[in-house]
Amino acid sequence: MKNLKSLIVAFLMALPMTFSYAQSKVAHIDTQKLIGEMPEVIAAQKQLEQLEKTYTSEIENTYKEFQTKAQSYSADAANQTDVTNQARQKELETMQQNINQYRETAAQDLQKKQVEMMRPLYDKARAAIEKVAAAQGFDYVLDASAGGSVIMAKGKDLMADVKAELGF
Fold it and tell me: For residue 136, what are the CA distances in angstroms to 131, 145, 160?
């Protein structure tokens, strides 16, 4: 009987330790907000916007040139031979195709540049989140961004600590 009491006491003393090991520390962070506030991301977005403006300007200038040439050819069509008008029409079609192809190439280049510039910044943010979470003893960090996988975000928000780790 005495051994049974000792066994029950030992079991009850070990029970809280079992529950403490079973609980995981969980934190959350709004990664989209973090990334949107990173100075490097803001600078990269400005570079991408400038590149987009350059492409847009080039496309607009080329299109204006196309319109001017089309109007000129249209106004002068009655004074030209059928062969000349057909050659002009073919030239305009080629110009239109070139404009469309340049527009597609510019969009692809812009998308490629965005991935190239942003991927290292996303990786940097993720590494900082992991470092802060590990230093503070968190087992899980949930993304609290809109559309993220958080059902309840009552844990510690790591935003301020991760910003400090990133230096802003």
Answer: 9, 21, 13
